From TrEMBL:
GO biological process terms on file: DNA replication, removal of RNA primer
Family, as annotated: Belongs to the RNase H family.
Family matches, as PANTHER family: RIBONUCLEASE H1
Catalytic activity: Endonucleolytic cleavage to 5'-phosphomonoester
Keywords: Endonuclease, Hydrolase, Metal-binding, Nuclease
Signal peptide interval: none
Domain RNase H type-1: 130-266
EC number(s) recorded for this UniProt protein: 3.1.26.4
InterPro entries, A to Z: RNase_H, RNaseH-like_sf, RNaseH_domain, RNaseH_sf
Protein name listed in UniProt: ribonuclease H
Keyword set includes Lipid biosynthesis: no
Length: 399
């Protein structure tokens, strides 16, 4: 309806609001300046002087928004952004083969967990036989994708021996970072154990497709750090492959790496320098988490999309309160003489019609044989929403 505020439409469609978007961009920009010690804005952000004029500025506004976000506020140490490539382009980078797909797996969603497990095991056995290859399973995890990160590595040697390692990755940490640290830890371990193994072959397994995709285009400090790890590992191995495998497909050892990562995140965390790109992800995730906290009704996926158009309209109008029921029509549009329901007992609102109005008692009982609360009727699973829409339709109410 025309009267529905944009703010409500945004939250109902679960679209990031313009305000949130602005705040997120502002916070990211502020972080960028913080990571550029030579920029003019860097100084202005750090020495915010009072000034004579009560004028708003980027430095002031972004500080205000930062104060409202505890997680971002706590981040103190940033790795300075590089102004040029850290290694000259003519210097050869150590190479590693990255395989971000398994040929037989078309899409993760097309297969059951059991099929995924079978396909993955077969692929691994054909390409990296246990008896010849060192297999390093890696995994990373972070609480709510923003804090207390941990990484785990689980190693299977060709002779059947196993080793495991669990490390912490910092108070402020994204899932991406935790996954990356797991791979680096695997490389470090490999560099340590391979010198004593002649013609070693090793495969590092990760379920993070996004990390593997990004590894090839890494720049700056991340690249340098990784290259150092690669160098040792590459020098001492005959073949080194980084292979993607599907997550939680029930391969026992991969599950073990997952629990090692969680153990790592339980260790006492340290403050570590963060990269601008990481903080950007953390800003995004922390704002998403905040949104979810303030909209508990959207705890599960919204079932409204499974209804037909008429049903969707009904639910949407009942949720927002911007509908053709008398209360809204009379109060907002000044239509009709009263906002009272035809039963004369109370204002005609969504709650009155769905829960209390005696006129619809029989109809209500034919649809729900027990008492159901408003939240379930308006935000519950699809079949509940369908019932609500059915009541309105059968009662002949035009919402
Ligand atoms: Zn009534």
């Amino acid at each position: 309806m025309k009267s529905t505020p944009i703010r409500i439409m945004e939250s109902q469609s679960q679209i990031e609001s313009m305000l949130d978007r602005r705040d997120r961009k502002l916070l990211a920009e502020r972080t960028k300046y913080k990571a550029q010690p030579t920029s003019k804005m860097h100084k202005r952000i750090n020495n915010l002087n009072k000034g004579r004029l009560k004028r708003s500025s980027f430095a002031k506004q972004s500080k205000l928004i930062e104060t409202e976000n505890e997680i971002i506020q706590e981040i103190k140490n940033l790795t300075p952004l590089e102004t040029h490539a850290s290694t000259p382009p003519w210097e050869k980078q150590p190479q590693i083969e990255i395989r971000s797909h398994i040929r037989t797996i078309e899409s993760k969603h097309k297969h059951s967990d059991l099929e995924l497990k079978d396909l993955t095991s077969t692929y691994l056995n054909e390409n990296f036989p246990k008896e010849e290859w060192i297999r390093l399973y890696t995994d990373g995890s972070a609480e709510n994708a923003v804090t207390n990160g941990g990484s785990g590595v689980y190693i299977e040697m060709p002779d059947g021996k196993t080793t495991e390692s669990s490390i912490l990755t910092g108070t402020h940490c994204s899932n991406y970072r935790a996954e990356l640290e797991a791979i680096m830890e695997a490389l470090t371990i490999l560099g340590r154990i391979t010198p004593s193994i002649p013609q070693a072959k090793a495969v590092i397994l990760s379920d993070s497709w996004s990390v593997l995709e990004k590894l090839e285009v890494l720049r700056g400090a991340e690249r340098q750090q990784l290259a150092k790890g690669f160098k040792n590992a590459v020098q001492n191995t005959q073949s080194l492959v980084l292979q993607w495998i599907p997550a939680h497909c029930g391969i026992e050892v991969n599950e073990r790496a997952d629990s090692l990562a969680k153990e790592g995140s339980q260790l006492e965390q340290i403050e570590r320098d963060l990269m601008y790109s990481e903080v950007k992800t953390i800003i995004k995730n922390s704002m998403k988490n905040k949104w979810k906290e303030s909209h508990p009704e959207f705890n599960r996926q919204d079932g409204v999309h499974q209804l037909d158009r008429r049903g969707q309209t009904t639910i949407f109008r009942l949720r927002t309160g911007h509908n053709r029921l008398r209360h809204h029509m009379n109060r907002v549009f000044k239509v009709g003489e009263t906002n009272l329901c035809s039963c004369g007992e109370a204002a005609e609102t969504a709650e009155h019609v769905l829960q209390n109005c005696q006129t619809y008692d029989a109809l209500r009982q034919s649809i729900w044989n027990e008492a159901v609360d408003m939240t379930t009727k308006l935000y519950g699973p699809p079949h509940e929403l369908e019932r609500t829409a059915a009541l309105i339709a059968k009662a002949g109410i035009a919402v």
